[in-house]
Design goal:
Elements lengths: L1 H31 L29 H27 L5 H23 L7
Helix pairs in contact: 2-3
Length: 123
């Protein structure tokens, strides 16, 4: 039983050291940085251009759709590679294969939906 908790204590100690390190870095940055606030420094900065007009801008929604599709297929690859190593081990057979085909089926339906909506066409 002591070996069981030893693994958790190491993880906890590393987490505490990490939090302390980040806290020390932020504290050192706050103590060492020059603080001379002026009127110009307190203005909103937008890539060197003076902020004029409203804060709302028109954005193309299709870029978010491309990002969403990328995330979907990145998650697909994250699940496929470990599945391939587990499936190669003895004792895993038809059930594991069926589960992966169900997963791939959901992804295929999503890809077909995106294709039918015209999302995959770059215009």
């Amino acid at each position: 039983m002591p070996d069981y908790f030893h693994g958790y204590s190491v993880v906890g100690l590393v987490a505490v050291v990490g939090v302390l390190f980040v806290g020390a870095a932020f504290s050192a940055g706050r103590l060492l940085r020059p603080m001379v606030p002026t009127r110009e420094k307190m203005l909103t900065y937008e890539c060197g251009v003076d902020p004029v007009g409203e804060g709302w801008a028109h954005t193309q929604v299709r870029y978010y759709v491309y990002a969403f599709l990328y995330v979907v297929f990145a998650v697909d690859s994250v699940f496929l590679f470990p599945w391939a190593t587990v499936f190669a081990a003895p004792g895993f057979g038809g059930i594991t294969l069926a589960e992966m085909f169900v997963f791939l089926g959901f992804l295929a339906v999503g890809l077909l939906y995106a294709y039918k909506k015209g999302v995959l066409e770059w215009t």
